[in-house]
């Protein structure tokens, strides 16, 4: 797996804002890729999808892109009311097509003229799987206004009729409950309306409960029920007691007792499936090739999920097209200050945003590369050995081997129109027994390698440059000029093309690969356009295993237009403010209002190859070196 | 392996562009349109293509068997599909990037969906009106409704191509 970097959002961590150490499995939830984060300008904080408050800003149909007003959403049960349907077999959208014209009587293959309008009856047709609605028995006379034409059939669905019957049955009980609520509310009119509503809800009579409102079992429907706790005001006479066996609810379709499940026809059909001639399988019922007559589970679930007519039947022919469910456009707010972070445009077909406060426009983007890991030795092999070797070799090639040290690159890109100075520091992951606190690196040392003497030390050591470095502001490509750089060393393997044109002055500074010493892999490697490349090094210890992950605190300082300069609260801030004043000559403005912002990231450099894979790879290499080239099996 | 002798019989009303790679013994029927960058390799046995077929760009037809590979009339081979099946009927559609193994034979009016791999282990004949769709290449049977409209559309498509392609591409004529 290539190395990744993720950013930390404070919502899941404790009050201190420090993220959890990366070897804990729960830490995965605290880190997000940069493209999924937002930034609140008021609170100066990173927000993620989990902490942002979401509200719906509009509903639309994904097929016809019609914006549905929220009132009709409820009425239409979250579906598109126009001619949008989903295929029950493959869930693609259906189109309305005319039927074929009748074939000529002589049966010859003379080309038949197809009229432009098409002939009725019209039906729904799926372009992907070629299902059509004639199988399900749905045809239309006109190609438009399908909703109206389907309305009648939908209204007479058994579920809707059942619901109507239930509503009728509970009607008197509902009226009772409402009357009680009225009475109760009138006596407590002086109370807070919220309290009144709550108390009336609590004391509402629940008709379905046999023992509600002090009624005893076996008393029947006599009026003695009403001579009860004085807290319950009597609604008067003339009510119907629901629990009376005489007025028991009878559903519309009544399964007779002892009639079994009632799907005899279906059971017979299933039994006959396997025994039909063409199947060729001697087993009864369901072989895997069931000739497509039985609806698969996902098809049946889809029909139930997206429609209000659950299919009890197993047959494919009974699958009906479902209406397209509506989608919503959401706007997101900061949870603390309720400012809007994201607000989409109201038109359904536009994908732009009215307000777009994404973290990528405020935080520097960071990418991680391990230049020396990832060359696949399997590419050198030919022929059949490739398949045998690739499983282990490919796995091992992208992993780090213990006992070695690898350089890695961090590439920072600055989205702001002002230059920023960035400082990095590695956060120590503290096992409980450890006594080493988080060490802020002093600016003087260019390379600090941290090691531990504790029992549970992490299996790697990271060295990062600790001086702050400048990243130039973002500007259009043609505006870049030569900048006065600090010393930089180009690595040999800069093959990473960031797509930004090199400024003409750069190629003059040669690459001196020859005089490079080990110390120079750590530090500022390259700076061009609004991008700065930093080199660091990771030393993997001999008994290391697992993933190499470390938390990194990034703090950057930029010039802001606010009246009062704000300082961050970590100990990295004081050197930063010192540095910002020393860099006065780089900042054009006279006012030195700088702001420092810091955020945590987790850098995942990849896994350390476990011993088994290393052993396998070494064995394979030894075997291959014996084989001669050009041997084909 | 006997050397490949190229023998192309292209009907005078067929439209085969210059940029098509053809090898072996190939017969192209009347009205067929072969877009540039298609490839027809009759590596062992001959290939016979019927009338009014459309082979779009990137189509690869390969015949590695000694028997004749017969392709029927009015078939549509969409972009980048790869077909090795020995027998194909009429009015089939092989969609974009689909792949047919040499063990499959197509009937008439079949539709192989985009990106589908039809690679049965043993020889299989897809009955007429089979539709292969979805990422797992599931199959179902088409009812055949709408086939007249589709045939009409295909004829118009082929007609349009026969008219337009020669205006912008060089044609390969039969030797």
From TrEMBL, chain A:
<comment type="subunit">
    <text>Subunit of dynactin, a multiprotein complex part of a tripartite complex with dynein and a adapter, such as BICDL1, BICD2 or HOOK3. The dynactin complex is built around ACTR1A/ACTB filament and consists of an actin-related filament composed of a shoulder domain, a pointed end and a barbed end. Its length is defined by its flexible shoulder domain. The soulder is composed of 2 DCTN1 subunits, 4 DCTN2 and 2 DCTN3. The 4 DCNT2 (via N-terminus) bind the ACTR1A filament and act as molecular rulers to determine the length. The pointed end is important for binding dynein-dynactin cargo adapters.</text>
</comment>
<keyword id="KW-0597">Phosphoprotein</keyword>
<feature type="region of interest" description="Disordered">
    <location>
        <begin position="496"/>
        <end position="517"/>
    </location>
</feature>
<dbReference type="GO" id="GO:0001725">
    <property type="term" value="C:stress fiber"/>
</dbReference>
<keyword id="KW-1017">Isopeptide bond</keyword>
<dbReference type="GO" id="GO:0005869">
    <property type="term" value="C:dynactin complex"/>
</dbReference>
<protein>
    <recommendedName>
        <fullName>Dynactin subunit 4</fullName>
    </recommendedName>
</protein>
<feature type="region of interest" description="Disordered">
    <location>
        <begin position="210"/>
        <end position="245"/>
    </location>
</feature>
<keyword id="KW-0206">Cytoskeleton</keyword>
<keyword id="KW-0963">Cytoplasm</keyword>
<keyword id="KW-0007">Acetylation</keyword>
<keyword id="KW-0832">Ubl conjugation</keyword>
<comment type="similarity">
    <text>Belongs to the dynactin subunit 4 family.</text>
</comment>
<keyword id="KW-0175">Coiled coil</keyword>
<feature type="compositionally biased region" description="Low complexity">
    <location>
        <begin position="212"/>
        <end position="227"/>
    </location>
</feature>
<dbReference type="InterPro" id="IPR008603">
    <property type="entry name" value="DCTN4"/>
</dbReference>
<dbReference type="Pfam" id="PF05502">
    <property type="entry name" value="Dynactin_p62"/>
</dbReference>
Automatic annotation (TrEMBL), chain B:
<dbReference type="GO" id="GO:0007052">
    <property type="term" value="P:mitotic spindle organization"/>
</dbReference>
<dbReference type="GO" id="GO:0070840">
    <property type="term" value="F:dynein complex binding"/>
</dbReference>
<comment type="function">
    <text>Part of the dynactin complex that activates the molecular motor dynein for ultra-processive transport along microtubules.</text>
</comment>
<protein>
    <recommendedName>
        <fullName>Dynactin subunit 6</fullName>
    </recommendedName>
</protein>
<keyword id="KW-0206">Cytoskeleton</keyword>
<keyword id="KW-0963">Cytoplasm</keyword>
<comment type="similarity">
    <text>Belongs to the dynactin subunits 5/6 family. Dynactin subunit 6 subfamily.</text>
</comment>
<dbReference type="InterPro" id="IPR011004">
    <property type="entry name" value="Trimer_LpxA-like_sf"/>
</dbReference>
<dbReference type="InterPro" id="IPR027777">
    <property type="entry name" value="DCTN6"/>
</dbReference>
<dbReference type="GO" id="GO:0005869">
    <property type="term" value="C:dynactin complex"/>
</dbReference>
């Amino acid at each position: 797996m290539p190395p990744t970097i993720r950013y930390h959002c404070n919502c899941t961590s404790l009050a201190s804002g420090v993220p959890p150490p990366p070897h804990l499995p729960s830490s995965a939830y605290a880190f997000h890729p940069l493209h999924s984060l937002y930034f609140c300008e008021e609170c100066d904080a990173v927000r993620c999808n989990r902490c942002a408050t979401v509200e719906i800003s509009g509903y639309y149909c994904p097929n016809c892109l019609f914006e549905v007003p929220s009132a009709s959403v409820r009425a239409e049960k979250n579906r598109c009311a126009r001619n949008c349907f989903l295929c029950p077999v493959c869930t693609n959208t259906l189109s309305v097509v005319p039927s074929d014209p009748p074939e000529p009587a002589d049966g010859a293959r003379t080309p038949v003229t197809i009229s432009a309008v098409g002939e009725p009856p019209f039906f729904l047709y799926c372009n992907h799987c070629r299902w059509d609605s004639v199988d399900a028995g749905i045809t239309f006379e006109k190609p438009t206004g399908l909703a109206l034409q389907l309305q009648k059939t939908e209204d007479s669905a058994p579920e809707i009729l059942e619901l109507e019957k239930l509503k009728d049955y509970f009607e008197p009980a509902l009226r009772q409950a409402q009357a009680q609520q009225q009475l109760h509310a009138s006596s407590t009119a002086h109370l807070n309306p919220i309290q009144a509503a709550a108390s009336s809800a609590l004391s509402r009579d629940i008709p379905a409960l046999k023992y509600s409102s002090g009624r005893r079992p076996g008393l029947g429907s006599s009026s003695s029920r009403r001579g009860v706790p004085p807290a319950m005001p009597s609604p008067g006479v003339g009510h119907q007691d629901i629990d009376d066996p005489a007025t028991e609810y009878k559903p519309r379709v009544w399964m007779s007792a002892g009639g079994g499940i009632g799907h005899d026809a279906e059971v017979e059909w299933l039994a006959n499936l396997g025994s039909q001639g063409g199947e060729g399988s001697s087993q009864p019922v369901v072989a895997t090739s069931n000739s497509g007559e039985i609806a698969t589970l996902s098809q049946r679930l889809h029909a139930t999920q997206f429609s209000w007519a659950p299919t009890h039947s197993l047959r494919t022919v009974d699958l009906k097209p479902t209406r397209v469910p509506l989608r919503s456009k959401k706007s997101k707010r900061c949870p603390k200050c309720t400012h809007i972070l994201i607000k989409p445009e109201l038109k359904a077909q536009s994908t732009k945003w009215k307000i777009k406060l994404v973290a990528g426009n405020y935080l520097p983007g960071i990418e991680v590369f391990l230049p020396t890991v990832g060359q696949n030795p399997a590419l050198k092999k030919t022929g059949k050995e490739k398949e045998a070797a690739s499983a282990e070799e490919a796995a091992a090639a992208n992993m780090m081997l213990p006992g070695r040290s690898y350089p890695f690159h961090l590439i920072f890109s600055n989205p702001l129109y002002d230059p920023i100075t960035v400082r990095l520091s590695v956060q120590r992951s503290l096992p409980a027994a450890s006594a080493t606190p988080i060490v802020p690196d002093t600016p003087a040392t260019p390379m600090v390698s941290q090691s531990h003497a504790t029992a549970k030390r992490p299996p790697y050591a990271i060295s990062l440059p600790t001086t702050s470095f400048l990243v130039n502001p973002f500007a259009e490509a043609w505006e870049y000029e030569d900048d006065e750089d600090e010393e930089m060393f180009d690595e040999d393997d800069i093959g990473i093309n960031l797509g930004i044109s090199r400024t003409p002055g750069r190629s003059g500074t040669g690459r001196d690969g020859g005089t490079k010493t080990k110390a120079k892999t750590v530090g500022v490697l390259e700076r061009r356009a609004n991008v700065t490349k930093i080199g660091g090094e990771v030393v993997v210890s001999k008994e290391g295993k697992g993933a190499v992950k470390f938390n990194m605190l990034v703090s950057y300082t930029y010039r802001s237009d606010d009246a009062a300069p704000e300082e961050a609260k970590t100990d990295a801030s004081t050197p930063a403010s010192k540095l910002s004043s020393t860099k006065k000559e780089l900042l054009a403005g006279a006012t030195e209002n700088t702001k420092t912002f810091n955020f945590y990231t987790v850098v995942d450099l990849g896994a350390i190859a476990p011993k088994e894979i290393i052993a396998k790879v070494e064995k394979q290499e030894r075997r291959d070196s014996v084989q001669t080239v050009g041997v084909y099996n | 392996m006997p050397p490949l002798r190229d023998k192309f019989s292209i009907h005078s009303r067929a439209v085969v562009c210059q940029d098509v790679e053809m090898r072996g013994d190939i017969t192209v029927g009347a009205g067929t349109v072969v877009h540039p960058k298609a490839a027809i390799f009759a590596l062992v046995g001959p290939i016979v293509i019927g009338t009014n077929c459309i082979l779009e760009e990137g189509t690869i037809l390969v015949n590695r068997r000694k028997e004749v590979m017969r392709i029927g009339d009015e078939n549509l081979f969409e972009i980048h599909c790869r077909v090795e099946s020995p027998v194909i009927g009429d009015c089939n559609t092989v969609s974009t990037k689909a792949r047919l193994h040499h063990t499959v034979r197509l009937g008439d009016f079949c539709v192989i969906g985009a990106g589908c791999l039809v690679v049965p282990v043993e020889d299989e004949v897809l009955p007429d009106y089979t539709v292969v769709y979805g990422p797992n290449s599931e199959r179902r049977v088409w009812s055949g409704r709408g086939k007249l409209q589709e045939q009409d559309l295909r004829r118009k498509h082929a007609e349009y191509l026969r008219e337009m392609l020669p205006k912008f591409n060089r044609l390969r004529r039969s030797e």
